[in-house]
Amino acid sequence: MSSRTVTIPDEDGSLSRHSLGEPARFDRPTRPLTSRRAFAAVHVVADPLAENTPASGANVDWDATLAFRRHLWSWGLPVAEAMDTAQRGMGLDWAATRELITRSLAEAGEEGGETACGANTDQLPEAPATMDRIVEAYHEQIDLIEGHGGQAVVMASRHLAAAASGPDDYQRAYSEVLGHVSGTAIVHWLGDMFDPALAGYWGSPDLDQASDSFITVIADNAAKVDGVKISLLDKEREIELRRRLPDGVRMYTGDDFDYPSTIRGDGERHSDAFLGAFDLIAPAASAAIQALDNDEADQFDKILAPTVPLSRHVFSSPTYFYKTGVVFMAYLSGHQDHFRMVNGLESARSIVHLSRQLVLADQAGLLPDPDLAAHRMRLVLELAGIEQS
Predict the structure, then answer these.
(1) Which residue in 81, 102, 178, 218 has the most C-beta neighbors within 10 A?
(2) Within 10 A of 14 (CB to CB), how many other CB atoms are there?
């Protein structure tokens, strides 16, 4: 068997062989990307020799974690730090999050890398919190981020979702939180497909009513809002909300299913990007934005089209387990030496799912060293009892 051939399981239980092809060639930018602001929401690398169970808290390999951020900056992409991609709410506790923010922003200062960091309320205990305490918790995290030179991303709060009785509570809380920001912030609406605890955010389970409440909050605080990130996996709703934003407020697509069309735009408006998918496809994402910078829209489409099946697979239901696919991609690509995760989340996707991810990543030309990827995939498959010969 070739060094690039692996025996993988199919959904029907049968086995087949897949031989990896040559990777696509992407060139790093020689100047800053300008046509879109394109954040890659980035994962953390667990310490493989430390406890990383639900009971242990998060133990992070800081050298490998920061090296991956340098990789993204080398492609001209801003980093979205300490977001749900980094397992906020799924294993990354506040102590590790605080250290991640300070370390990453220090590294950004040395490397000249643009970085925005998530501000949430996860330093609070799980028990219900008062509205005043929720606002104070946001303020504490915003102060940490801005104090270290970062831009704050106001994340959706589980505490606020539990405490708010309707749209008025969201409007009050966000007005106080955004009023505390020294510059401008990005406001993130994370849908319940990413976190079921956020169902009914903005005061209603009806998305039309929630959208109205959301737009009211943004309009009332537009001077403090750089942009909004919509993570609903609903292209048409994102486009409709994009049309309703106040002048000067960006739409950052969070649609990991349809990002090429939202980023390219409709000729009048476009979305910038803020995507966990860009952790997976950073070189292709950079090359595509470079194509837009050169007014080569067709090339933009050509570069990103092969990446969409991969992203849709990684973000398939249950969507909140997409983090497993992101880390698996980093392992196959040689950005970390192991496939272990904070909270033991490497077990969240089946071996069939991971095998399909390998094939889709290969078809997109996104495995920079096919021999290494095949070797590592065989190790994973053998641990699952699938003999390689």
Answers:
(1) 81
(2) 8
Which stretches in the chain have pLDDT values below 70?
A: 1
Report yes or no on 19 lying in a domain: no
pLDDT tens across 174-192, in order? Answer: 999 999 999 999 999 999 9
Quick one: pLDDT at residue 267?
85
Coil, helix or strand at residue 47: coil
Q: pTM for this structure?
A: 0.97
Beta-bridged to residue 152, according to DSSP, are: 117
Q: Is residue 12 part of a domain?
A: no
Provide the percentage of residues in the chain whose pLDDT is more than 90.
96
226 lies in a domain? yes
Domain count, the chain: 1
The neighbouring-strand residues paired with 16 are 8
Q: How far is CA 77 from CA 80, 216, 254, 261, 371, in A?
A: 9, 31, 15, 19, 27
Rounded to whole angstroms, how far apart are CA atoms 167 and 348? 35
Which residue range(s) make up the domain with 51? 29-353
CATH number at residue 213: 3.20.20.70
| Per-residue pLDDT at 98 | 98
Torsion angle in degrees (nearest 10) through CA of 362, 367, 371, 372: -130
Q: Give the pLDDT confidence of 61-95 residue by residue, as tens digits.
A: 999 999 999 999 999 999 999 999 999 999 999 99
Residues 6 or more apart in contact with residue 368 via CB below 8 angstroms: 23, 283, 333, 334
The C-alpha atoms of residue 355 and residue 302 are separated, in whole angstroms, by 25
What's the pLDDT score for residue 126? Answer: 87
| The two structure tokens encoding residue 8 | 């993988």
Name, in order, each residue with C-beta under 8 angstroms of 255's C-beta and a sequence gap of 6 or more. 230, 231, 232, 233, 234, 235, 238, 262
Q: For position 1, what pLDDT does the model report?
A: 63
Is 269 domain-assigned? yes
Residues written for the chain: 389
Alpha-helical (H) ranges within 227-307 are 235-244, 259-264, 277-280, 282-293, 297-304
* Angle, vertex CA 37, rays to CA 41 and CA 170, nearest 5: 65
